[in-house]
Design brief:
single chain; 8 helices; 24% helix; globular; alpha+beta; 343 residues; 6-stranded antiparallel beta sheet
């Protein structure tokens, strides 16, 4: 954390009324506290090693992880801990699949419970660095980690402040077996994420798109969630949006759209506030449900505004994403496509 972030965080806590944004999150935390006792880290690591089949490799500069036997993992944990609550079981599964516990705690309860339906996972991480002119360029995980180590050292210097951001564009496809599954059809929950480190150089409205050659699952509640602020200091502003649900509709900051059955987009401001005070984006994710009877290709794409831009996109029947506007208005990056094979 930089000195700039620390000062901003302290200022933020002093601003009257801002804390109302966290009321929903606090209520959710109270609800989750009643969902049983978490499993020990030692148990999680032990059963994960015995049960999961994990393959990791690089595809160009991208990091890829393929995980199988997730349904067997759910059964094994339940067998050894028959009194475990469904929520704690789902939370433990997500942690074993690589999610950070703080991130899992931020998920809506239904997304944690959804983990009990998972059978396999495909995850791809793309690492981007923002140059001094605001251009996004892909780097390797090694370079990304080295940058983080350098920033941590520089942050101890009183005069140091961050100017440019780095981000991870992450795509995770969970194959699942929902209660409404039809014979011969595969179901997937695809989670796209944008995770910022540092400050974006341009503070406007960005757009993340999840596309697929499969059909949108009309039984699935596609959702998005965003965090702005300084989670490490305990100060955040959060927002939810639903595409289809009885709670449906856009959030205060997040906007969801699905112009075709082949994709969904979420637009997000990279900062919230006014000329006197603002907080920067930290993490935005979205869940998109698809189904198929054949092999399908999926992709998570991202557009970072560098001039005034009205975020818009289209998705073709072959999953190709096209962003609206002209090239000088935004930087675009198309994450590594991945194939989900029909079983």
């Amino acid at each position: 954390m930089t000195i700039t972030k620390l000062v901003a965080g302290m200022l933020a806590l002093a601003i009257a009324g801002i804390s109302t944004f966290s009321a929903t999150a606090e209520a959710t935390s109270v609800e989750r506290a009643n969902n049983g006792v978490a499993l020990s880290t030692q148990f999680i690591e032990s059963i994960k090693e015995r049960t999961l089949e994990v393959v990791e490799y690089t595809d160009g500069l991208s990091s890829v992880q393929s995980i199988k036997n997730v349904d067997a993992l759910v059964d094994a944990v339940k067998q050894e801990n028959p009194s475990i609550s469904d929520y704690q079981l789902g939370k433990s599964v997500l942690i074993m699949l690589g999610d950070d516990e703080d991130f899992v705690n931020s998920l809506p309860t239904e997304k944690v419970l959804e983990a009990l339906e998972y059978t396999s996972v495909e995850r791809t991480d793309v690492y981007l660095r923002e140059t001094q002119n605001g251009e996004l360029v892909q780097i390797s995980k090694r370079e990304y980690d080295a940058d983080n180590a350098t920033a941590a050292t520089q942050a101890t210097i009183p005069s140091y402040s961050e100017t440019f951001g780095k981000l991870v564009l992450r795509s995770t496809a969970y194959k699942r077996n929902p209660t409404y599954a039809l014979s011969g059809r595969d179901y997937y929950s695809i989670r796209g994420e944008v995770i910022w480190e540092g400050y974006p150089f341009f503070h406007m409205t960005d757009l993340m798109v999840i596309s697929s050659t499969g059909n949108i699952d009309n039984n699935y509640d596609c959702t998005a969630y965003g965090v702005w602020g300084y989670p490490e200091d305990g100060f955040t502003i959060t927002d939810y949006a639903h595409l289809r649900s009885q709670d449906g509709g856009n959030g205060e900051y997040l906007k969801l759209s699905a112009p075709s059955v082949y994709g969904m987009g979420v637009s997000m401001p990279t900062d919230i506030g006014d000329s006197n005070f603002s907080v920067e984006i930290d993490h935005v994710y979205a869940y998109y449900g698809v189904s198929s009877q054949t092999d399908i290709t999926c992709q998570v794409s991202y557009a970072h505004a560098i001039l005034a831009w009205t975020p818009s996109f289209s998705v073709s029947s072959v999953g190709t994403v096209s962003f609206g506007g002209i090239g000088v208005q935004r930087e675009t990056f198309y994450g590594t496509p991945f194939t989900l094979y029909h079983s």
